[in-house]
Amino acid sequence: MNETAAISKENLPGAEDAIQMVGFVLAGELFGVDILMVQEIIKESAITSIPDSPDFIEGVINLRGNIIPIIDLRKRLNLPAATKAPDSPSWTLILDIGGRTTGFIVDHVTRVIKMPQNAIQPPPEMVVSALKSQYINGICRLDEQMMAVLDFNRILAVDEFKRLGALKRQQAR
What is the pTM of this model? Predict the structure, then answer.
């Protein structure tokens, strides 16, 4: 089954000082991404593997004629391997990152979250000093849980974008 859920920015109530994010879970933790980066959310997509690609690149998908590289976000962030049931569906966030469309596999998508801009705090100094924290834009409290807001512009370095472009060209042949 291939379900696609589109997020309509027009249907959401707006406030000038609020940020709208798509919440998702990865390794039992809650994360968020700016809704303006999200093109769509796909559930259960067939991925074609690409030989000799980095371990975090799962392969590519054909989305309405466009070849989209797919990255396992869990592997990219060096999070523990998934322990979910084999029959549970995977979700892919299709994001526009600096004009490049890229898919990221996550455990599941939660909901659209509207957060006051001042509720998002910078990560603590101890977290900032860690290499992995370069991907975190901020941290906020959502209900009884903390949510890390990811900066997908930093998740892929420039040289990785070049490798993804080479994969797309190789797959198109």
Answer: 0.76
